């Protein structure tokens, strides 16, 4: 079984597209943890669980490491994890985009048939100038992205890892499996999406770079911002892990890249739309989806009625980011790492 593990709160309007896309390309089940949902996100996953597509668990009693890491610790001991052949930890704003063949997982596995872990590089998609939120597919609304050569900040080349559940890693991680079996470490085979070996990635938290991103075969489309209104909602909710960085104009500016058009995910759009038609005709899911959209509209209107969110929203609309040249990025990236370290102190 090919399993996605995810953690969600108040993401109801985006679930059906995200789930349909990943089922269409070859994932088979979702293990979903939710907490404190107000928009019916938990009810949507309960319905998808009733249809045999997911297992939904509550993620209450959050531990000090944060919501997301608490859920992953619980997932480590979940029976569904032991049934999985392949595992991926993925957020609802991340879409696996396979660029080979028909855009299916099998097309990706054909590139690296012997890999124990495939590191999939992020490709950051900006807000595309959209101030308002609309209930339309994210993958169709946001088609402007960072160029492949975008070395600043260095976390542009973050990864999500698709890995064999029996390969020898002990724990799930947000970006990569953790704690490889020392006895098997030397034999673990880690590649990027193009099949290029990545020495050292089996045990260390390394970053990709342009030369090893593997964009030619696959990427993870990362829609961290969506519209400016969606970002207000994200800022009000806060981060799902333990890092104490604010969801503010700086966070937006680091991610609002709109320099190139990227339609590569359209390769699997027909597959997605066929899957999406199935839950859409389910009257329970349709009602839950509409209820979630109504809740989001009301919450956005309330936020824009407050002084600070309104001021932030107006600044977001006019703030866009350009890629820096490699020389400037090399000088600045160490300062990003220093800033992270200071923020965790």
Walkthrough of the structure:
With 345 residues, the chain is of the alpha/beta class. 37% of the residues lie in helices and 17% in strands. Strands 1, 2, 3, 4, 5, 6, 8, 11 and 12 form a nine-stranded mixed sheet that branches. A two-stranded antiparallel ribbon has the order 7-13. A hairpin with a 6-residue loop joins strand 9 (169-171) and strand 10 (178-180). Helix 7 (228-237) packs across helix 11. The longest helix has 22 residues, at 283-304.
Summary tags:
nine-stranded mixed β-sheet, 17% strand, alpha/beta, 12 helices, 345 residues, two-stranded antiparallel ribbon, 13 strands, globular
**Gross morphology:** globular
The quaternary structure here is single chain
Class derived from helix and strand content: alpha/beta
Q: Low-confidence spans: pLDDT under 50, at least 5 residues? A: none
Helical fraction: 25-40%
Tell me the β content.
15-25%
Q: Note the gap between the termini.
A: 41 Å
* Total of helices: 12
One letter per element, helices H and strands E, the order comes to: EHEHEHHEEHEHEEEEEEHHEHHHH
- Mind telling me the C-alpha Rg? 19 Å
Summed over residues and divided by their number, the pLDDT gives a mean of: 92
Instruction: Sketch the major β-sheet.
Output: 9 strands, mixed
């Amino acid at each position: 079984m090919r399993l996605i593990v995810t953690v969600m709160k108040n993401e109801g309007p985006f679930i059906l597209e995200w789930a349909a896309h990943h089922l269409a390309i070859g994932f088979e089940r979702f293990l979903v943890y939710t907490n404190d949902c107000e928009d019916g996100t938990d009810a949507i996953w309960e319905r998808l669980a009733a249809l045999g597509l997911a297992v939904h668990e509550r993620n209450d009693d959050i531990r000090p490491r944060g919501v997301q890491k608490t859920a992953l610790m619980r997932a480590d001991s979940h029976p569904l994890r032991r049934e999985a052949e392949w595992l991926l930890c993925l957020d609802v704003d991340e879409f696996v985009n396979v660029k080979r063949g028909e855009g299916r997982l099998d097309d990706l596995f054909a590139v690296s048939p012997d890999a124990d872990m495939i590191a999939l590089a992020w490709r950051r998609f900006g807000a595309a100038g959209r101030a308002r939120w609309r209930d339309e597919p994210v993958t169709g609304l946001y088609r402007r992205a960072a160029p492949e050569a975008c070395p600043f900040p260095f976390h542009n080349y973050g990864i999500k890892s698709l890995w064999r559940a029996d390969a020898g890693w002990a724990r799930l991680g947000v970006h990569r499996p953790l704690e490889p079996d020392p006895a098997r470490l030397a034999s673990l085979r880690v590649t990027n999406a193009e099949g290029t070996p990545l020495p050292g990635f089996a045990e260390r938290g390394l970053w990709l770079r342009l030369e090893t991103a593997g964009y030619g075969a696959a990427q993870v489309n990362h829609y961290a911002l969506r519209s400016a209104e969606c970002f207000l909602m994200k800022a009000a909710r806060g981060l799902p892990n333990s890092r104490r960085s604010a969801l503010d104009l700086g966070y937006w500016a680091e991610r609002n890249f709109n320099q190139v058009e990227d339609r590569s995910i359209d390769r699997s759009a027909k597959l997605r739309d066929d899957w999406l038609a199935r839950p859409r005709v389910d009257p329970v899911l349709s009602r839950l989806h509409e209820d979630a959209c109504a809740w989001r509209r009301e919450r956005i209107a309330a936020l824009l009625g407050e002084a600070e969110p309104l001021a932030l929203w107006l600044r977001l609309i006019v703030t866009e980011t350009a890629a820096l040249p490699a020389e400037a990025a090399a000088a600045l990236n160490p300062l990003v790492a220093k800033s992270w370290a200071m923020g965790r102190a």
